[in-house]
């Protein structure tokens, strides 16, 4: 039998899981499997901390921060540092970003950025968060968001050259 907390959490997952997977897919530069792992880890931690989440002034910021923390934790795992990725299996469909087209070149360039730098770009430009909300999600100062964003854009421009996706940034 479900209690009230379980029902509230269930409703949250039903209504927000797809958006969390989209965000995690961007944070992982298109790695759909890692994105699913991040969402699952985030939801597990969120369930444990459900009372704190419900008291949060900014629930969306709370979840964004939990996703970034899950990505940071994942990148610190010892086996992740020694794992060697293989080419994608050609008979499988590639994960699509449901919110719009993210070109393969841009996705590959994002993959080259450190996770927190990538997260700063995703929150600032894919989700159009302001500097303060991005700083809250990343757990850093607004100045750090500005410098990380500027450095990330410089790296992307160096890799991609004049690219239509970066023209407005």
UniProtKB/TrEMBL annotation:
Entry keyword set: DNA-binding, Sigma factor, Transcription, Transcription regulation
Domain RNA polymerase sigma factor 70 region 4 type: 106-156
Family annotation (Gene3D superfamilies): 1.10.1740.10, Winged helix-like DNA-binding domain superfamily/Winged helix DNA-binding domain (1.10.10.10)
Domain of life assignment: Bacteria
Pfam short name (any one): Sigma70_r4_2
All copies of domain RNA polymerase sigma-70 region, residue ranges: 19-80
This protein's record includes keyword Transcription: yes
InterPro entries in the record: RNA_pol_sigma-70-like (IPR039425), RNA_pol_sigma-70_dom (IPR014284), RNA_pol_sigma-E_actinobac (IPR014325), RNA_pol_sigma70_r2 (IPR007627), RNA_pol_sigma70_r4_t2 (IPR013249), RNA_pol_sigma_r2 (IPR013325), RNA_pol_sigma_r3/r4-like (IPR013324), WH-like_DNA-bd_sf (IPR036388)
Family, as annotated: Belongs to the sigma-70 factor family. ECF subfamily.
Protein name as catalogued: SigE family RNA polymerase sigma factor
């Amino acid at each position: 039998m479900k209690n009230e907390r379980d029902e509230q959490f269930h409703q949250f997952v039903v209504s927000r899981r797809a958006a969390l997977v989209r965000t995690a897919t961007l944070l992982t530069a298109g790695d759909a499997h890692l994105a699913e792992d991040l969402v699952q880890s985030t939801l597990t931690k969120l369930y444990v901390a459900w009372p704190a989440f419900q008291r949060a002034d900014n629930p969306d910021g709370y979840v964004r921060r939990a996703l970034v923390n899950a990505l940071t934790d994942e990148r610190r795992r010892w086996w992740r540092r020694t794992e060697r990725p293989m080419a994608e299996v050609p008979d499988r469909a590639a994960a699509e970003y449901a919110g719009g087209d993210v070109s393969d070149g841009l996705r590959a360039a994002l993959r080259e950025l450190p996770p927190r730098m990538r997260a700063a770009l995703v929150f600032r430009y894919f989700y159009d968060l302001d500097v303060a909300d991005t700083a809250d999600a990343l757990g850093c100062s607004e100045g750090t968001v500005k410098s990380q964003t500027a450095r990330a854009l410089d790296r992307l421009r160096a890799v991609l050259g004049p690219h239509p996706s970066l023209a407005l940034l």
